[in-house]
Design a protein that fits this description.
Blueprint (H helix, E strand, L loop, with lengths): L1 H15 L24 H11 L12 H8 L9 E8 L5 E8 L3 E7 L7 H15 L4 H9 E6 L4 H6 L20 H13 L3 E7 L4 E3 L8 E4 L11 H21 L3 E3 L9 H7 L3 E7 L9 H20 L8 H4 L4 E4 L3 E4 L2 E4 L2 E5 L1 E8 L4 E9 L8 E4 L4 E4 L19 E5 L7 E6 L10
Parallel strand pairs: 3-4, 3-5, 5-9, 7-8, 11-16, 12-17
Antiparallel strand pairs: 1-2, 2-4, 6-10, 7-9, 11-14, 12-13, 14-15, 17-18, 18-19
Helix pairs in contact: 4-10, 5-10, 8-10
Length: 446
C-alpha cells in the first residue's frame, strides 16, 4: 500500500512538471506560439511580384546551361558577387561556387543535388537579383554587412540535364556524404571543409502527394533541422537550426498555414544535411512540395524565396536566437503520400481477356502538371485515397495507341504507360475522355 501511494505521488509530480519549450522530448498540451511574421513580409512580397522574379524560368524542367545563362548576368562583381569553378560533374559539366557579402557569419546554400528538384534553383536566381539590384534595401544591407553568403547552385547538373533524381553515374548525390564516391559529392564536401560555414541551407523538392500529418492537406513546404547523431540529440548547433526553421515557419504561416510540415528526423549518416550538422553547421532542410493549380511551381518558387530570405535575415539580425524549438518541432510530420489520380468504378478492357471491374491508379512523372502518366495500380482501390479522382461508373477503360501510333501495351496493367480512352462502350467508340500519358489541359476531366 505504501509503495502504491509513493508511485502515485511520483506520477502526479511527473505530470505536473512543466515541459521546457526547447526540450527535444517535451510534449505540451498547448501549442507553442508562432512568432509574428517579419515586418517586411508584405513589402517584399509585393517587390517580388513586381521586380524580383527572374524571367526565363517559367518551365521547371530547364537545362543547367539555360539556368546559368540567365543567372550569370546577375552575378557581376559590380553587384558584389564572385564566382569560381570548383569542379566538374561526371559528364564534365562545371560546378560553380558563388559568394556575396562581407560579414563574419558564413552561410552555405546548395540546391538541386537531386536533378529533378529545381524550385529552389529558380528561387536562387530571384535572390541573386534581390541582393544585386537592391543594395539599399535594409535586408540586403544587413546581409551584406553581417554575413557572407556562399551558394552552390545545381550540385547535380547531369541529373538536371535529364531532369532525373540521380547523377549520370546512377548515384543519389544526397546519399553520398559518407562514401564521397561522386565528383559532385566530393565538390560539396570540399567546399564545406574550406568554408566551415556557421549555417547551411539544403534545398530540395518533395513529392506533392505528401499530406500534412494525418490530415488530407497537401504539404507546400516541409522543414527539417537534421539530427547529427543516432540518438536524435539537440546540441547548440542543431538548436540554432531549429530556431531558424521556426523563423521560416513564421514567415510562411500567413500564406501556407496548415500546409507546412516537418521531415522525419531519423539520422542518416549518408545524407549531406545530417552530416553538415554533424560537421558543425546549423543546417536547415527546405523541401518545396506542391500547391494544387501551380503546375510549374511558380507560386511555390515565390514561397521558397520568402523562406530563404526569412531564414537568412533571422541569421543576420539575430532574431532567431531564443525562438522556442517547439515552433519547429510542433509542425506535423510528413504523413502519407497520396497517389496522383484514381479512376474509380470503371471496367478495364484487356486484349484477349474478359473485362474486369477495377479501379485504376495513375502516377505522373510531373504530378502537378499531370504529365508522364504510368499505371501504378489496378484492382479494388476503394480504401486508397488520391489527390484527384474520376468517377468512371458505367464506363470502360480501353487501351489506345501511343504517340507513335503503336499500342505498346494492349492491357491496362501496372507499369504500363497510361494510354486509354474512357468510353461508354468496350470498343472505345463512344469516348468521354482520353489520357495519353499527359492530361489535356483543355479537357482535364470527363
Amino acid at each position: 500500500m505504501h509503495a502504491t501511494l509513493l508511485l502515485a505521488a511520483f506520477l502526479a509530480l511527473s505530470l505536473s512538471m512543466p515541459a521546457t519549450a526547447n526540450d527535444a522530448h517535451a510534449t505540451t498540451s498547448t501549442p507553442t506560439p508562432v512568432p509574428a511574421a517579419p515586418a517586411w513580409l508584405a513589402e517584399v512580397e509585393a517587390l517580388y511580384d513586381a521586380d524580383l522574379r527572374v524571367a526565363g524560368l517559367e518551365d521547371r524542367t530547364f537545362a543547367p546551361e539555360h539556368w546559368w545563362q540567365i543567372a550569370t548576368p546577375l552575378l557581376s562583381s559590380r553587384n558584389g558577387f564572385a564566382m569560381r569553378e570548383i569542379g566538374r560533374s561526371a559528364e564534365e559539366r562545371p560546378l560553380r561556387h558563388v559568394s556575396w557579402g562581407r560579414g563574419k557569419t558564413r552561410v552555405l546554400l546548395w540546391s538541386q543535388m537531386h536533378g529533378d528538384e529545381s524550385t529552389a534553383t529558380m528561387a536562387l536566381a530571384d535572390l541573386f537579383r534581390f541582393l544585386g539590384e537592391h543594395p539599399r534595401h535594409p535586408i540586403v544591407q544587413r546581409l551584406r554587412e553581417r554575413t557572407t553568403l556562399h551558394f552552390f547552385p545545381i550540385v547535380n547538373p547531369d541529373g538536371a540535364a535529364r531532369f532525373q533524381r540521380r547523377n549520370a553515374q546512377g548515384v543519389d548525390v544526397n546519399r553520398d556524404a559518407r562514401d564521397l564516391a561522386t565528383p559532385e559529392g566530393q565538390a560539396l564536401k570540399a567546399l564545406h571543409d574550406a568554408l566551415a560555414p556557421d549555417f547551411g541551407f539544403n534545398l530540395h523538392d518533395q513529392r506533392p502527394g505528401y499530406r500534412a500529418g494525418d490530415s488530407e492537406r497537401g504539404v507546400a513546404v516541409a522543414l527539417l533541422a537534421p539530427a547529427y547523431n543516432e540518438a536524435n540529440d539537440v546540441n547548440e548547433v542543431r538548436g540554432r537550426a531549429m530556431e531558424v526553421a521556426g523563423m521560416i515557419r513564421a514567415a510562411l504561416e500567413p500564406s501556407l498555414s496548415g500546409h507546412l510540415a516537418r521531415w522525419d528526423e531519423t539520422f542518416n549518416p549518408r545524407g549531406f544535411g545530417d552530416m553538415t550538422t554533424h560537421w558543425g553547421s546549423s543546417t536547415v532542410l527546405l523541401e518545396a512540395g506542391g500547391i494544387e493549380g501551380d503546375p510549374q511551381k511558380q507560386l511555390l518558387r515565390k514561397h521558397t524565396f520568402i523562406a530563404m530570405l526569412a531564414g537568412l535575415d533571422s541569421i543576420a539580425s539575430g532574431s532567431h536566437a531564443g525562438v522556442p524549438h517547439g515552433v519547429y518541432r510542433e509542425l506535423p510530420e510528413n504523413g502519407a503520400v497520396w497517389p496522383d489520380l484514381a479512376i474509380r468504378g470503371g471496367t478495364v478492357v484487356s486484349d484477349r481477356l474478359p473485362p474486369v471491374r477495377a479501379d485504376v491508379m495513375v502516377g505522373f512523372r510531373h504530378p502537378l502538371a499531370e504529365q508522364g502518366g504510368t499505371i501504378s495500380d489496378v484492382g479494388d482501390l476503394a480504401d486508397s485515397p488520391s489527390r484527384h479522382s474520376i468517377d468512371a461508373s458505367g464506363l470502360y477503360l480501353v487501351p489506345i495507341a501511343d504517340a507513335e501510333g503503336r499500342i505498346a501495351h494492349k492491357r491496362i496493367v501496372t507499369g504500363a504507360p497510361a494510354h486509354f480512352h474512357l468510353s461508354r462502350d468496350p470498343e472505345g467508340r463512344d469516348i468521354v475522355w482520353t489520357l495519353k500519358r499527359d492530361v489535356d489541359p483543355a479537357h482535364p476531366r470527363p
